[in-house]
Specification:
The complex is a heterotrimer. By secondary structure, chain B is of the alpha/beta class. Chain B is built from 10 helices and 12 strands. Chain C has 10 helices and no strands. Classes of the chains: A mainly alpha, B alpha/beta, C mainly alpha. Chains A and B meet through helix 20 and strand 7 of A and helix 2, helix 3 and helix 4 of B.
Chain lengths: 462, 299, 225
Amino acid sequence: MPEGKYCNKKPIETPEEVNFLLSDTSGNTYYEEMKSLDVDSDLMWATIQKTMKSRLKTWLEICAHCGMCADSCFIYLVNKKDPKQVPAYKIQSTLGEIIKKKGKVDNAFMRHAMEVAWSQCTCCNRCGTYCPHGIDTGIMFGYLRGLLYQQGFVPWEMKIGAGMHRAFRAQMDVTNEDFIETFEWMVEEYEDEYPGLTVPVDVENADILYTVNAREVKHYPEDLAEAAILFHVAGENWTVPTEGWEQTSLAMFAGDWAACKMQVESVYDAMERLKPKRMIGTECGHAHRATVIEGPYWAGREDGLPPVESIHYVEWLAEALREGKLKIDPSKRIKEPVTIQDSCNYIRNQGLKNATREIVSHIVEPGYFIEMSPNKEHNYCCGGGGGFNGIGFFRKQRNQALITKRDQILKTGAKLVLAPCHNCWDAIRDLEEEFEIGIRWSFLKPLVIKMLDLPDHMKPEE
Amino acid sequence: MFKKILFATSATPASDHAARVAFNIARGYDAHLDIFHVLGVPSRGYSQVVVDVKTKERVDVDDEYMSWVKEEVNTYYSKYLENGLKFDINVTVGFPAREILRQAKDTNPDLILLGGTTGDEDESVYKKSVASTTLQKVAKSAKCPVLIVNRPAASFWGGLSNITFGTDFSKSSDKAFDFTIKVAKALDCEVNVFHALDITSVSTGKILSQDDIEQKIREAFRMIRAKYEPALKELKNYSMDVWEGIPYIEIVKYARDNHSDLIVMAHHSKKAKQEDAILGSNVEQVIVRAGCPVISVNR
Amino acid sequence: MHEFLTGICFWIALGVCLIGMLVRFVLYFRGLSWQLDRVAYKAHPIPGMKGAFRSIYKWLLPYGTYGWRTQPFMTAIFFGFHIGAVAVPLFLAGHNLFLESKLGFSLPMLSACVADFLTWMAVISAFFLLLRRIVLPEVRILTTREDYMVLFVSLAPFITGMMARYQVGDYGFWLNMHIFFGELLLIAIPFTKMSHVFLFFASRAQLGMDFGIKRGGMKGTKMAW
């Protein structure tokens, strides 16, 4: 059986197709079908010749096999230094083999490559900063994922995730109406406490266009209210778009580049339609990576920049605190040992470490903040990045990978972990559930709201 | 009076007391009962895995599982569901408070009915990541009155004849009063308006002299008369009282003495002083302690 | 034999090496694609150049980067080998006298004592690099036959050169062997992993531009990636 009912090379395009694939519980049949999925070697080789240029070729070729990347990889360390987990080995034995064999690899090899690409690398890019030759294995794994996706060798949840973006322009089945309705509902719920709280929809020429993660709409709508409250208190002129509000991209994790383009263009269209001064996304790492850092390239923007200046939530928050738009009541600052999780996607891969630390300096009582070790650009992945969190098929491997972060947190002695990234937040939540080390974790918004020093006119009437 | 009731349940013994009240009200007032069960908390990022609240197991949620859970809920309450009760069962996935509020937003019930907290819910890992419990959140944000049955002792609903309305003269208390009058008129009950003077030094900042206390009690009486008596006069039976002490204890005591079968109070969206302390706002304490159902009115 | 090696062979080896390097260098940069690599090279030349320069410079400094500092022993033998492997062939007095006679110009020359030291340092470091390959599981699993060949080809001129230098046995034989292996090395450079002698700069520059333009450089990060 070359193409399965569930598992095949065809991307998911419609809500019906999403539901159909979802109906296969845990993807059991999907993975069964995958065992007999044909490999289209000609297509793969043709794709490689079209898309693999000097950078990737050179990386594969000049790797000196020195093994200096080994210790940089937390998955290698956490798996008892299994040599098969050395980044260079992982990529040479998968992408490297495909190139060597000119795409003529079999089904078993592809399934193995899938396992390596999604369960042995979170695309955290840490190894890239430890290679004397500047070889970024994370980027190569991103490329490999694209090849695997094209051939249908992709974890079930990733296929669904990419399909959601194609069908809904969101990572979950949240429609544009759901988004606006939920946002308005949440704002209504909080307007007693914050008189005048609104959600400005589709306002042109606003200072800020706010974009979110669909999971907030679906499961944590408080986050929307919190964003509204902070913009409101800071006196910002902000808006949300009725279309193009989803900043994330599971398609990026899946390697579905066409869906990446569709998704990011929906956000860029909103920017061009509403002409805001800036775009600000929610506290999410990969969403920022997808829409702000990688997105311009998928959308074919030669300057590598989104249509309007786009910043991460932590950059805005740091700025609002610095400029006094938001005032913190010093007596309400965090007075317990606290640490911060540096998200790979905007700390290592966009250098925003100072923004988060500036926020910390405002909201944490001096002396209570403890850095993880290593930290900033050198911090380890939370253990669930790159799609790892969501893949049931690789749950065991993911839980093993959480140990790095668990031990890092334990070493700080902190009881509270600031996690301004959805993926990190999830991974830390899961590691607490898995290992019960007695920590709490939080996004920044709810913490900041609790310690705001509200101007008098914003206080609710008695 | 009640046409549409949203009964949020865990479909476990923890909700049994509430269930008894829910079915009694629905039957007694010929209301439509929406039995709503949040079957699990989403987990693992965007995976399809949730932790089932009943079995505590990690399960893959799909349509099949959802309809299985629906069937389970139906079976669990089967003895109540006979004889033409108007009801439907809805199950969903999410964080309970949020999903209950979402369901309420979508269906606009006249009353939300909640069971008490389950013991082991407190140990759940999700709890730590959210500021307050399901109960607090729903009571705080719901647009309709929220009826909470916490203790088994509170679940013997034999029709309404006596309501205790606890007031602190706030705006939301006015709303709660309006609701009380509405219920009392519709069901022909006695209403006892009650104010408890908070004499704990925590809130007054000093120890009051007896003269001070009595002076304040007189003031409160005057307030009650002015605010509520005109409306109360339309009822057959009513009384007014002001006691001093720890407010929530006094209200529970008062309701017990008066054989009230319902306490109505306002829920303040304003946060209590020690918001993270175990002692929440008065209404939350009353809910925990009362020997009858408590209705929290918000707006 | 000596005539042959220092005559036509030398010219061929040098030509193949230089032209090969040049061609591959040009091909590398021509093969960069802003859209496929997802780096806007042309749109942001200044941050790109800064990133590229910092990336190369810091990685050329022993212990200049976090990566080097986390593995001090590897860094020691790495630089021990590479400093010798670059300085000795280029600046050895003997080589420059030969160069002078062939091309009419010469580079600065090392004193014999420094040259000896660097040579020994390179050879001993290379021995440790070899040992590392054999002993450490994380390096062994990566190692292929080519890696040993490359190590041999780069080390052979040193060994033969030292044999000649210390006149172990027949000087003329070792000298010819030395020249032969030296020329083999030159020819190997553009076609094997040895290409890293120049592609190192290309690859580092690329990643430097990547980070310098897209991944933090334009946000003010001063890290050496």
